[in-house]
């Protein structure tokens, strides 16, 4: 599943490509929106919140899209070949000089812009928001002290933006196993690390938690490879059907 920084960067690129321009083509390829034609509308703004993207239109409505596991927005020049098959396209937006194609977007909502926040009201603070509320994120994280930290970090109701990659790396940097209870963790540091790692990568497609793009991650997807800190083989396991990665020596309960 894309992390919050991936969605943030996609949103910024979409905003730069479309904002202030008129759609010459605006299709939503979903049965619920079969009769909806957005051509002729101006794109006012594209913003993101956690893993949600909102595209604002001049008719007072917004399109909410969520990437889930395999969704993505691609930008193309006119006539450029798409990098994914056409049958995966769920949204096709064109302006004079760009195409924006939304592939495999399972969650689409078209709502009045004034009501779009209702769709994300259940979420915790957005880790990449300028006005990020760290105290509220800590409060939500510690609300269930017995909950495994690896589960709590992925819960978008706690704070919005952490995915499996940052879950693994934050636990490593905290030196705790993903199964450790929240009560055993420095919650303020967990929140600060989550925000710091996402901010470090929000303006680039590469995601490095080590500070080195040659070896980008400490444990994420490094099963069987040596830990960068101690040399012990990195291990992986499953929590609630999601893989977790950890160093059995550096991380402990």
Summarize the structure.
The strands form three sheets. A five-stranded antiparallel β-sheet has the order 1-3-4-5-9. Strands 2-7-8-6 form a four-stranded antiparallel β-sheet, covered by helices on one side.
What distinguishing features does this structure have?
253 residues, alpha+beta, N-terminal domain of MutM-like DNA repair proteins, Helicase, Ruva Protein, domain 3, 2 domains, five-stranded antiparallel beta sheet, four-stranded antiparallel beta sheet, 22% helix, 23% strand
Q: Could you explain how this protein is built, in words?
A:
The structure is a single chain. The chain has 253 residues and is α+β, with helices and mostly antiparallel strands. The protein has two domains: 4-119, Alpha-Beta Barrel (N-terminal domain of MutM-like DNA repair proteins), CATH 3.20.190.10; 134-246, Helicase, Ruva Protein, domain 3 (Orthogonal Bundle). Helix content is 22%, strand content 23%. The chain is built from five helices and eleven strands. The chain has helices spanning 4-18, 134-141, 149-154, 164-174, 187-201; strands spanning 21-22, 25-28, 42-49, 52-57, 61-66, 72-76, 89-94, 99-103, 107-112, 235-239, 242-246. The protein has a five-stranded antiparallel beta sheet. It has a four-stranded antiparallel beta sheet with strand order 2-7-8-6, covered by helices on one side. It has a two-stranded antiparallel ribbon with strand order 10-11. A hairpin with a 2-residue loop joins strand 3 (42-49) and strand 4. The model has no long low-confidence stretch (mean pLDDT 95).
């Amino acid at each position: 599943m894309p992390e919050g920084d991936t969605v943030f960067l996609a949103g910024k690129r979409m905003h730069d490509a479309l904002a202030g321009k008129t759609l010459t083509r605006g299709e939503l390829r979903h049965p619920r929106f079969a009769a909806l034609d957005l051509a002729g509308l101006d794109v006012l703004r594209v913003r993101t919140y956690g893993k949600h993207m909102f595209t604002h239109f001049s008719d007072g409505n917004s399109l909410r899209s969520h990437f889930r596991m395999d969704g993505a927005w691609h930008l193309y020049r006119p006539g450029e070949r798409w990098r994914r098959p056409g049958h995966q396209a769920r949204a096709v937006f064109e302006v004079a000089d760009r195409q924006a194609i939304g592939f495999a977007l399972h969650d689409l909502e078209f709502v009045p812009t004034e009501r779009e926040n209702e769709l994300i009201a259940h979420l915790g603070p957005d880790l990449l928001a300028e006005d990020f509320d760290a105290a509220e994120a800590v409060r939500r994280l510690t609300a269930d002290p017995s909950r495994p930290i690896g589960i709590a970090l992925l819960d978008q109701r706690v704070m919005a933006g952490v995915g499996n990659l940052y879950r693994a790396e934050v636990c490593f940097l905290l030196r705790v196993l993903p199964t450790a209870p929240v009560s055993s963790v420095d919650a303020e540091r967990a929140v600060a690390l989550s925000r710091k790692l996402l901010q470090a990568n929000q303006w680039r497609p590469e995601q490095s938690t080590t500070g080195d793009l040659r070896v980008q991650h400490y444990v994420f997807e490094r099963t069987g490879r040596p830990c960068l800190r101690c040399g012990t083989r990195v291990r992986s396991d499953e929590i609630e059907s999601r893989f977790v990665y950890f160093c059995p020596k550096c991380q402990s309960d």
